[in-house]
Each structure stands twice: as structure tokens, then as C-alpha cells.
Amino acid sequence: SGLLSRLQTSAPTERTLSSSKSSSQNIPSCLWKLGRLNHVAIAVPDLEKAQSLYRDVLGAQVSETVALPEHGVYTVFVELGNTKLELLHPLGENSPIASFLQKNKTGGMHHICIEVDDIKAAMTELKKKKIRILSEEPKIGAHGKPVIFLHPKDCHGVLVELEQA
Fold it and tell me: Rounded to an integer, what is the distance from CA 128 to the centroid of its chain?
């Protein structure tokens, strides 16, 4: 009669995701493909402490620090086997990471990076779908490959970086 008895007697619901695409669904094909998760970027107020945590405490392989003046950041990559973490620290006062750290004093997740097979086609199609891209042209990212960033307000609050695979 009560809520508890209804919950105890109701059958569990199973959710499934369909992996097959029916031809009747009429899904438009993209000219580009989304690939694997390349990295999750974390803004850190103290790069040496963050490197030490992942290298000395957790035992991960940690790269050397690389300055990327065009992006206003220092980067360090932490290898995780199936993906990487990118530790970001401000390079200069106009760094986007400096403003992020002003709002988030202890640091935190900054963006995710997903590989694409054709970044120019992705840009064209995303613009048609009203997804804002934060630069007119791709810039060269930390891996020496073209990257773009998608506006977080168009991506459910997540800053998304797309990187040419």
C-alpha cells in the first residue's frame, strides 16, 4: 500500500543501447568521424606538486614540462595506458588557465580532448549545426597536431577539444 511496498514489488527495469543502425532511421552520414579519447586536461596551481603526485606517489610515467606560448600554457602529460592526463599550468598573465585558476583555486578538470579523422570537415559540419568553435582556424596543439575547442555552452558545460588524429 505504501511507497516502500510498491518499490519492493516493482520489477527492475533494464536499459539497453542499440548498437545497430537501421536503414529506416535515416541517420545522416558525417564527413568525419569521432575517434578515441586522447586526454583529460586538468588545470593545476602547482605543476611540480602535480607531477610529483602522478610520478612519485601513483607511479605513472610523466613527461617533461613543455611551454606552449600560443596557448598560454605549460603542459605535462601523464601516461595512463588507454589515455593520458594533461596537466595545465598558466604561461603568462593572459593565459586562459590563469583565469580558470582564479575561479578554481585548487585546480580541476579543464577540458576533454577527442580525436577526429578530419578536423576541417568537423569544423564545417559543427558550424552548420550551430556549435561555436573558439577559433577561426585550428591551432597546433601539444602533440604537434591541429586542434580546435568547442564552446562549453554548446557542449553541456564541457570544454571539448578536437584533435586531428
Answer: 22
